[in-house]
Amino acid sequence: MAHTNTYPTPYKKVIILTGLFMIITGLAVLFGWAYDIQELKSISAQFSSMKVNTAIGIIFLAASLLSLLLSHKNATFITLLAIAPVLFVGGVSFSENILHYNLNADDFFMPRYTTALPHFKFAETMSVVASFCFLMASLWIILVQFHNKRCIKAGQYILHTINLISGGVLFGYLYSEAYMQNFGLGTHMSLQTSVCFFVFSLAATLFHPKEGITGIFTGNKSGNIMARKIFIRMLVAIIVIGYCEILIHNSKVALPGLGSTLLTVLLILVAIVFVHEVSKQLNYVEEKKELAYQNLSLGIEAAPYALIITDNNGLIQHINNETERLYGYTKNELIGQSVKRLQQEGNDLFSQNDKNAILENGKFVRGGDNDSQYLQHKNGTIFPAELTFTPFRSMYGRSILISVIDLTDSKHREDIINRQIQELYQKNQELEQFSYIASHDLQEPLRTVSNYIALIDEDYPEEANADIKVHLAAMNSAVGRMSKLIRSLLDFGRLGRDRRLTAIDSQVVVNEVIHDLNGLITSSCSTIIIDSPLPTLYGYETELRQLFQNLINNAIKFRKKDTKPTVHIGCAKAGNFYEFYIKDNGIGIEPKYFESIFNIFQRVYHNDMYDGHGVGLANCKKIVEMHGGNIWVESLPGAGSIFLFKVLRLKKSAVSEKRHLATVE
Ligand code: ADP
């Protein structure tokens, strides 16, 4: 037995109001007994009175009903405590009434002869019907404590029984039919008692609104709404007609035959109105259902994919036009057949295990990226496809919707792209090979020219011809410059060869670069400030070191004459990238050079102002692109520059060395 009650019910307010009504009624009746007020005891002198025991029992029953709403840990105890006297008095009174002996049950709550309130001496034994209802109500309270489906169901029907009995008594009062007020057993049940039991038995069923007859009236389905509407109207109509019949009969306003005929006609008319209402509602529901079915069929037919509905054994129940087109079968050829007909022989794409798993776990997708996803056309052609299995309840029962996406075209495109990537990779390798060989071989004739210049220089006496000496020096310098350019070209071509992705702590790399540039930093009185901690990332270490070295070197190299260089370095996450910046307070760059400086051998100033060959930033660009990113500059002439670059945040596990592919963190 649970310790807390807490029955989740949306009808909490109705239950509370019912409980309060019962308590007020009970108290009013007790007051009536205490001060001998007839109207409070029995409403009318001709009606039976509500007994003292009954009034107190009703109060306890209401308390026990309300306590079911409590979520307190002792709620069950309170409920049982409240119902115990009800069960006792109900039980004893019932046996007294049935076995006809006096156990003085009516003295249980109030002694019969109390001097303080002499009127209580008229308190009599409660009616058989009331004691039976108390017994039933107590039984219900006990049953629901078990929180078990069977007990709840039994409890619900016990409440319906109380409802029927108390409703019958109410009819007895309505039609002044004495037999209905006690069902031929003992004293009559009072009007107040029958109302209390009637509302109690209705409200109590709302703890489990989907159970028993209550389930017909609660809920929001068309049937429930219709039941609510029609039942209430029907009840009113029947009561009125019944009342009229009694009235005609008692007052003799018409001959009995004529009166009955008129009322029968009236009953038929009322029945026609109700039948009309029911049929209208049913037709409306039918139309809605048809519309929904049409929309569903339209959706299935208009789908750009093949859609197949099978039962849980894999027998095809429905296919759309696209399925006919894709597989080459007609609907008649496939409906009722096993879905195996659409598979490549030996490739069971939809085994019994799969079906059970789908029905149990829901949607399941079979990607189209391995051999097992090949399906078979009627003409025997095999084609790749992606399959999605979705379980649902159709009009055939448990069904599975299979959507088939033909991957022939996308597989074809994928093959072409893969081939192109392969070709591109090969061409790239050839190009790297070519630039390496070209620049390497170019050095050879240069070395020869340089040797000959040295020979001529040596052979010519010092005083021979000053001009020739000057020309030879100029030639030598040009050859030297060209050699450097070729070496830069060679380095540029080599960049990224034999690269290996590793985890790199960029903070460490930058510290090492600063250490390497110590001479330049000291001689130029530069300050390097790292604004934010630099991340660890997956990349190519040698190349990243070169990237930082070029950018920091440039930031110091292109300084203003009268200003000590200050370089700021920082990094932030930007989506799938890390975004680094190297900011200086140097000479700055005119916007028209923002693009060109990243091309090889492109410089803004002449060689004599700042040394260099215009290769550094081209290298930087190539390195950043190798890391899936890009580089750009923001600058104002005279106000310094910020070089920014983004590199992908790579995950080690996803790095593929061969094709330099990687996925984002
Ligand atoms: P190099 O430094 O050998 O000239 P780079 O490719 O590194 O070649 O730079 C290309 C040009 O971009 C430089 O000649 C210079 O004009 C400009 N530049 C690069 N970095 C800066 C900087 N921090 N401040 C101003 N100008 C710069």
List the helices and strands and how they pair.
Layout: H1 12-34, H2 38-42, H3 52-67, H4 75-99, H5 128-144, H6 149-174, H7 191-205, H8 214-217, H9 222-251, H10 256-302, E1 306-311, E2 316-319, H11 321-327, H12 331-334, H13 352-361, E3 364-366, E4 374-376, E5 382-394, E6 397-406, H14 408-459, H15 466-494, E7 501-505, H16 506-516, H17 518-523, E8 527-530, E9 536-540, H18 541-557, E10 566-574, E11 577-583, H19 616-626, E12 630-635, E13 641-648
Helix pairs in contact: 1-3, 1-7, 3-4, 3-5, 3-7, 4-5, 5-6, 6-7, 9-10, 14-15, 16-18, 18-19
This protein binds adenosine-5'-diphosphate.
Overview of this structure, please?
The chain is α+β, with helices and mostly antiparallel strands and 665 residues long. Helices cover 53% and strands 12% of the residues. The protein is built from 19 helices and 13 strands. The chain has helices spanning 12-34, 38-42, 52-67, 75-99, 128-144, 149-174, 191-205, 214-217, 222-251, 256-302, 321-327, 331-334, 352-361, 408-459, 466-494, 506-516, 518-523, 541-557, 616-626, and strands at residues 306-311, 316-319, 364-366, 374-376, 382-394, 397-406, 501-505, 527-530, 536-540, 566-574, 577-583, 630-635, 641-648. Strands 1, 2, 3, 4, 5 and 6 form a six-stranded antiparallel sheet that branches. The radius of gyration is 49 Å and the shape is elongated. Mean pLDDT is 83; it is low at 654-665. Residues 550, 554-555, 558, 584, 586-589, 597, 603-605, 612-618, 641 line the site of adenosine-5'-diphosphate. Residues 550, 554-555, 558, 584, 586-589, 597, 603-605, 612-618, 641 line the site of adenosine-5'-diphosphate (ADP).
